[in-house]
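Q: My labmate handed me this sequence with no annotations at all. I'd like to see what the chain might look like in three dimensions before we decide whether it's worth expressing. Could you predict it?
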Amino acid sequence: MSNSQEKESRKKKESIPKSIDPAALEMIDIADKAGLSTVFSRVDEMKPCPIGAAGSCCALCAMGPCRLVGKNAEEKTGICGATHGTFGARYMVRSVAGGVAAHSDHGRDIARTLLAVSTGDAEGYSIKDPEKLGRVAEMLDISTEGKDTNQLAGEVARKALDNFNGTAGDELNFVKRAPEKRQELWRKLNLVPRGVDREVVESMHRTHVGVDQDAEHLLDQAMRTSLADGWGGAMLATDLSDVLFGTPKPLVAESNLGVLKDDEVNIIVHGHEPTLSEMIVAATQDPEIIEYARSKGAKGVNLAGICCTANEILMRHGIPPAGNFLHQELAIITGSVDAMVVDVQCVLQALQPLAEKFHTKLITTSPKAKIPGATHVEFKEERALDIAKDIVRMGIDNYANRGETSIPEQTGDLVAGFSHEYISYMLGGRYRASFRPLNDNIINGRIQGAVAIVGCNNPRVTQDEGIIYLVRELIKRDILVVQTGCAAHASAKHGLLQPEIMAEAGAGLREVCEAVGMPPVLHLGSCVDNSRIMTVLSNIVEEGGLGEDISDLPAAAICPEYYCEKALAIGTYAAASGAYVVFGVRNPVEDCKEVVELMSNGWEEKVGGQLVFEPDYEKILEMVTNRIQEKREALGIQEEKERVLMDMAARREI
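A: Here is what I predict for the chain of 654 residues:
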């Protein structure tokens, strides 16, 4: 590419729209006119290092940083002799370890809360789904006979914690939830995780200078570490959250910045810990708290969410999400947020300087995360409800300090709350809950396959654009879409999580969805709840008729707008489980050709899945739909079958 072409390419990237969300664009315009710094303005001011962005830089020791660039870069090495392949593999392993640590630490905190509930040391919490507690106990090889709820909860919590620290045995308990063929493959390849902590520590050890220097061997560790999250930490987090707070069922709500109220105290919870947000929900619904808000001149207390905390309280309570990752600053710029309560993950340090320009009180709550200048109120489970009420009162007291507000009108209606248990019930009914109808309609071609569209926003690409484009194009092609995380928020804001979207679905998908009362786009929860997707895929395999493993299914996963290590951890465990996974934005190891080849064709041969990167959304669509058709052809179901209405004689023969 010539210099003039490079300049033109850069100009095009700089001129991309910031968002396709009208509410976001309205607030960005207000911010720009006021000279306010936001993630959308800073991304233009901070150009990425092209060397590091493509995996050609290693900064793991004081002999470097080393850069492998210029002529014959693939033949060069770092000072220690590390090759491009080692650079890229170390990057992937450390990124996966970081993502697994974050996701799984979330699950560990849920397990500790469950343990505190079992001993009566967690104020305000209770076991909301004792039936699921029993099922989880069985999965953890714990007998339920003759035990009351609290005793069983204590044993489940302790065994869950053993799965984190690696003392549960040589294999994580939930590995047995995967198809038998997949388990056998993992054991053969020595990929079965032994414990979340053990795999994360070993990943950090192996990537220290002078230890593991074989790219394929390093990437095997990336897969094993990621599986500790997908079939361990994250899966336990989802199941134990259901036990404590209730297994989600479909409910309706609104989304986007328009859910904020001019005449009520607006409190936003942001982050990832449902232990805190559950208590904030309870506090805002307390009659005494509501009356206190009225005494300060407000009509009441309005609670909304950002990011995955928003998904947690949406899925179980119908609390409206104010937006996804890139909405956190925009919410403050409305001037209507009296308190933003944050815990861990995806929380921008820029929130506090911005909050100081408005009246918003930023409150940090986790012992793991502080922000300079923010008010810190450490959350403790033994005083959970009291602390939550204190936090809400701080927001109420701040209501009087509001100035002029600029709340966008836009909202999107949505239906959320689809757990894997409810999907089974929805397809088969109370007494015959089953994935059989879904399998049958994939086999007969009315549904071509299923795709998960998950993950984050990234300001280096147009907010929501890739997510919305892919959702719309896939359902047109009779492909069922499941979503989690900020990608689900995007669909909610743009009206793709409501029944009316059925009109955009292909004829086959629409026929099935209308018959069972299932929308063509299913919201399954937070990013941690990607484990629900793995469980759904395993259930489809177990139901029969679509192969013996996840890798046989006409299915794929897309993360169009990723930005963080957690996304790479999720993508890796999905690929290691046999899924075809495509990321947008950019390939962080693009220059490391050996690693690119290993994660695509190498993993395809080894585990039946791939992790590939493609920034062009049209190409992603083509890649994914081709993959689905290839899998249908391999299963011998590529041709749509005519629907046959059976008479009683034919039924008797069956």
